[in-house]
Amino acid sequence: MIDESPLYLGFDLSTQQLKGIAITSDLKVAYEAVFDFDADATGFGIKNGVLTNEAEREVYAPVTMWLQAIDAVLQRLQDKGIDFGRVRGISGAGQQHGSVYWSEDGEHALQNLHEGKSLEAQLHHAFSYPYSPNWQDSSTQKQCDSFDRHLGDEVQLALHTGSKAHHRFTGPQILRFRSKHPDAYSKTSRISLVSSFLASVFVGKIAPIDIADVCGMNLFDIKAGSYNQKLMALAAGPSDLESKLGHVPEDGGGSFGEVQKYFVRRYGFNPSCTIAPFTGDNPSTILALPLRPLDAIVSLGTSTTFLMSTPHYKPDPAVHFMNHPTTSGLYMFMLCYKNGGLAREQIRDALPPSPPGISDRWSLFNYHATHTRPLGASIESSPAKIALYFPRPEIVPNVQAGIYRFTYTSQQPTVSSPSAWKLPEDDCRAILESQLLSLRLRSRGIVAPPSPNPQNVPAQPRRVYLVGGGSRNTAIAKLAGEILGGVEGVYRLDVGGNACALGSAYKAVWAVERKPGETFEDLIGSRWREDDFVEKIADGYQEEIYRMYEKGVDGLEAVEKSVLEEQASTTGAGQV
Q1: CA spacing 20 to 30 A to 282: which of 333, 378, 467, 553?
Q2: 3-class SS of residue 110
Q3: HSE (CB half, 13 Å, CA atoms) of 213?
Q4: The Carbohydrate kinase FGGY N-terminal domain covers which part of the protein (predicted)?
């Protein structure tokens, strides 16, 4: 019997690969394929998916490489047996902030593709500039300074756009592009983000920018729901930047149109296949759960990322706020830290060889982390041991590389003498506390108590989900519950490396199959098989120790302030 049940495609265009996943209506993965840029792309000379100009701190990717990848992934899916005629909807995710510059002939070329030629062959002249700045690019410090000043200061910029100015954000990148490549900019008819570029290829016209991804530009006024005209003028001068960027639809599940005839004729797609909005990689990640309001994801890799879905919009220069990609009235709160796993590994490596009965250094690290008293205090009234561990310069807060150890009593941090700490053993718990207390400090304004709340539980996440390599560390999980709380506990989320692509595929299902008024959370939540992906690994909120860590939150804030003041006095720089 021929299987004619619907399939939905989700794509993830990341720095190093394009991944495509096909799922069924009940969210089961049916097919997947990957195109690795370093291993599979031909003719670009890239490394780790990008090209670099170290002299100017530029990092960028060839746009036509992505076109090569689209055809390759579709062919690989077809080689695995997929019937594209079953695909009813397509969505995708793109690395955030990157921009694609279409030439005056770009949209005409998109609309007139011939199935006998590749996308790369037909669209390589569709761009006024052949490269897209990558999120690792740091060439825009001058432009970021201009953005931070333009509305008064970085606080005002964050209030309006959800973030202070960042090197990778699209507004500062456009400002620099217009200055460095004025001829190319003058020949630019439209500007896409990476996500909307990918959508444009599939729909055969320049697709709108998604309601969440637009918030990674420093151009969109989130509360006003429109582009900030002062910032648009800063980025583009007298030119009409809004016509280049296009209208931003509010419905994250609305249709951009039907799939381009090229894909119907070349691969056998159903002509009525719907192209749903494509979003950024971080917004798509929160769709892979799907997160409920006040759920938090802590991604524990080389760096640390904290994501939360929240109804509260309380922007600050140290964090990022974006519109939720599917649900009006919700926002995505994001924290990004440079120092995560690397800092923990340095403490682990400083430990002496494991004694008998302890198998390896991680086990020894975990032993010290879980057998040291909270905040290194012998009793609750004792001074707390609080430290910052930054092998790399940090951005949250903006502190130079180093280890900064303090003792803290009555809101007065004091630089510790080495004799005050038992080293390296005390560092094992202190580094985990430092990293988790920073998350609690910076998210405390957007969490809320559970409702109903007969036991008067304080504001905290509903659930804490750990992902990434560090999620398998039992000590991290234990301390996450003690410090961050989590009314329902601490969980490990494991969707392999497919979170962005899965989130996109789920979005396609919702866009096509939703009933009037049916939210993403309701539709996907009713079909999502939690037991396949989620495991409870630690208790969450515990009243006594959670209250004890209030002192730790205050202490970390005071320690950061002390370090920043000292840094400013010696370098003339530094701010939270």
Answers
A1: 553
A2: helix
A3: 31
A4: 135-287
Peptide bond preceding 452 in cis form (omega within 30 of 0): yes
Helical segments of 295-450, H only: 341-349, 361-371, 425-443
The amino acid present at 347, given as its one-letter code, is I
> What angle do helix axes 154-161 and 141-150 make, rounded to 10 degrees?
80
464-467 and 296-300 as β-strands: parallel, antiparallel, unpaired? parallel
For residues 263-268, give the mean pLDDT.
Answer: 98
Distances (CA, A) of 232 to 177, 216, 227, 502: 14, 14, 7, 34
H helices present in 237-360, as ranges: 241-245, 261-267, 281-287, 341-349
Closest alpha carbon to 86 in 278, 276, 259, 268: 268
Average pLDDT over the chain, rounded to an integer: 93
Contact between 62 and 37 under an 8 Å Cβ cutoff? The reply is no
Structure pTM?
0.87
pLDDT per residue over 127-181, tens digit each? 999 999 998 898 999 999 999 999 999 999 999 999 999 999 999 999 999 999 9
Contact 87, 512 (CB under 8 A): no
Structure token digits, residue 21: 């996943």
Total residue length of the chain:
576
Rounded distance between C-alpha atoms, residue 433 and residue 267, angstroms: 53
